[in-house]
Design goal:
470 residues, alpha+beta, Polyamine Oxidase, Chain A, domain 2
């Protein structure tokens, strides 16, 4: 019997364990052990019930267009619990000069595709609007094979104001990072390809819309979640795993390479395995592998992470009535606030709150404000409440408040990230009984973690001689 160690009990590691467990149920003579250093499974997927409301400590949803999470939910028998975002109410604001300005219609992420709404929007200056008009005649970028920051590409097309008011806050909300640091080829590869082919991003978007096949069905919601919260996904996977194969609350000291496998060392002793799936942040993986595969550990250690703080606030219906419609707002760093974004959860997912409650979910931290994690919960709440008062005029005492700190949780795909992944791939080819999963490589969302976890398990199963089944 072959044995596989899975290091990490977040959604990536759980997905890998589920894949192996399914293969066992189909008759494969395979065993596995999942190690998790903390006292719970699921990583950042944490849901709380507070004042009749669902508050998410980590991600509150996943992109509907990425199928891995949806497919897993259906396999687990919880497909009927998937809910979509309330896109009919979708409106996002940008804070400019301490005033909330709605993003204009036709703005596809960063690219204006409708002239009049953008032209009349107070979000951009006259100079930026002129840059948008000229952008339609932008030539293809000569150095299309070189990587660069998102900011460099956006500034070349639309100017610095677009970086500061749109690109940076959008990427800060998704990655907890900065447009001036993140790789365009790793984060927005479609934009790099569009520029190479069309020159103008606006022309490329219009061409894509024109060439798209007409849909006969209703459009999918942009975001999906689970009716009982994202932790429901963890609750659905865990009972399907063999309890004796789970080592929860057991940190690993080192993973040592052996001639025909690996030795996983913990305070409780060492265990031998034929293969290892590393499903922890790259920094942790680097520490565990520093002696056995130092060249890989060095590459993994170079992938940076940022930290974040999520604050959930519950209010009554009087506050809800005073809020603007929509999903929430983003805060450019140029506004001088510590808050990066705020989601009106009760609008985005009405199932999350009863009719007499509303939920505000605020985000702080990111690559420029790691220091916020060193503040007490009371200090963080004080900052958030003061800034909500400044921005929304909300000065009421919340009915409930929760503060969640996530240190080193969001991978930062810097310039050259794809080159680093290629070097990692080559190293792994020479280390065939080891593979990697998680948000440090090719996507940071829940579907990406599910996909990399299951792919990692399949890769190790295939290497150990268990055929890949349909």
């Amino acid at each position: 019997m072959k044995r596989i160690a899975i290091i990490g009990g977040g959604i990536s590691g759980l997905s890998a364990a589920y894949e192996i467990e399914q293969r066992r149920k189909q008759g494969a003579d395979i065993d596995y052990v999942l190690y998790e250093a903390s006292n719970r499974l699921g990583g950042v997927l944490v849901t709380e019930q507070v004042e009749g409301c669902l508050i998410e400590a980590g991600p509150d949803s996943f992109l509907s267009e990425k199928p891995a999470a949806t497919d897993l939910c259906r396999e687990l028998g919880i497909g009927d619990q998937i809910i979509g975002s309330n896109d009919s109410e979708r409106k996002t604001y940008i804070l400019v000069n301490n005033r909330l300005i709605a993003m204009p219609d036709g703005l596809m992420f960063l690219v204006p595709t409708r002239i009049l709404p953008t032209l009349f929007s107070p979000l951009f200056s006259v100079a930026t609007k002129l840059r948008m008009a000229k952008e339609l005649f932008h030539p293809p970028h000569a150095s299309i094979l070189e990587d660069e920051t998102v900011a460099a590409l956006v500034e070349r097309h639309y100017g610095r104001e677009m970086v500061e008011r749109l690109a940076d806050p959008l990427l800060s909300g998704v990655y907890g990072g900065e447009a001036d640091q993140l790789s365009v080829r790793a984060v927005l590869p479609r934009f790099a390809d569009m520029e190479a082919k069309y020159g103008s991003l606006g022309r490329a978007m219009l061409a894509a819309r024109k060439n798209a096949a007409p849909s006969v069905s209703a459009p999918r919601p942009i975001f999906s979640s689970l009716r009982g919260g994202m932790q429901s996904l963890v609750a659905a996977i865990a009972p399907r795993l063999t309890p004796l194969n789970l080592r929860i609350g057991l940190p690993i000291r080192e993973v040592q390479r052996r001639e025909y496998g690996w030795l996983v060392n913990t305070d409780a002793g060492g265990s031998s395995f034929d293969a290892v799936v590393m499903a922890v942040p790259t920094q942790s993986a680097a520490l565990l592998l520093r002696n056995s595969v130092p060249v890989l550990a060095q590459e993994l250690a170079e992938i940076r992470y940022s930290s974040s703080v999520t604050v959930g606030l519950v209010y009554d219906e009087t506050i809800e009535a005073a809020l603007p419609p929509g999903f929430g707002f983003l805060v450019p760093r140029t506004e001088g606030k510590r808050m990066l974004a705020c989601t009106f959860v009760h609008n985005k997912f009405p199932h999350r709150a009863p009719a007499n409650r509303c939920i505000l979910r605020c985000f702080l931290g990111g690559s420029r404000d790691e220091a916020v994690l060193d503040l007490s919960d009371a200090e963080i709440l004080s900052i958030v409440r003061r800034e909500l008062d400044d921005i929304l005029g909300v000065d009421a005492e919340p009915l409930a408040a929760r503060v969640y700190k996530w240190r080193g949780a969001m991978a930062q795909y810097g310039v050259g990230h794809l080159d680093r992944l290629e070097r990692i791939r080559q190293i792994l080819q020479e280390t065939p009984r080891l593979t990697l999963a998680g948000n440090g490589y090719s996507g940071i969302g829940v579907p990406d973690c599910v996909r990399t976890g299951r792919e990692a398990a399949k890769q190790m199963l295939g290497y150990l001689g268990y055929p890949i089944l349909a």
